[in-house]
Amino acid sequence: MPSLRPFILDLLLSSGQLLIEKQENASAQNKGEHDLVTDADLASEKLIINAILDRFPTHKIYSEESPRAHDDLFAPHVWIIDPLDGTNNYAYGFPIWGISIAYAQNGELQAGGIAYPLQGIYLLAEKGKGAWEYREEEGAKAGERPALGKPRRLHVSPRTDLHKCMVLVCAHLTTANGDLHLAGLGRVAKNVFNVRSLGSAVFNLGFVASGLADGCVEFKLQPYDGAAGALLIREAGGKVTNLVGDDWKLDMPGMLCSNGKVHGQLLKALDWSA
Q1: What is the pTM of this model?
Q2: Ordered domains of the chain (ranges, CATH)
């Protein structure tokens, strides 16, 4: 199969432009007590899925806002999609939200990308071929697709001392296991330079891949939240496991990722068996 990077980048650009146009007037409704879905989520998902099935009509789709089957994660060809990650941020006007698209074969990630449309940043990775950042160039008119500058190769951060590291977390404190997550967050916070919570998995994982953060703890994660980010981090030289140190797979509910150099220290600080 030819490189999927141009195709995924095109999907991210198209869906990102749609989400920007819809944000001001997006209508939201609850799909959980502390979880929203908007008409923009659904429109973005429709755009992405239609484009994929038009090109690959036999491929499976595993997407946040559509019916999905667990076994499809391990199909010969599957696309794993979060058409709008950080929906709560998006609905409240907080500018930390993005898009995640990944492609896997038999449970093994092959290609993926993340978009930060408001920031004009797109992160792409292919298995064995590295991770790359594209940035929009200035000068595009409203409604026009922006030109992209020359891609930059991504590398994780070089830090080796956890006490000097910035770690991102998504603790889901309002869920049934919120107290356990809060305790784990507290243990991590005592052993790092500082922690931040952004409310968007694609920002957390993309920042680790880009070297802007040294690690991330996602206490509760869906496959569509983490698939593209996991590949980006690995291709940028980092490490991705579950919360107890096993290599992360698509059906694992929690994720711990890092630059690789502090991974053992971060696992020890989290002490998820505590």
Answers
A1: 0.94
A2: 5-153 (3.30.540.10), 162-270 (3.40.190.80)
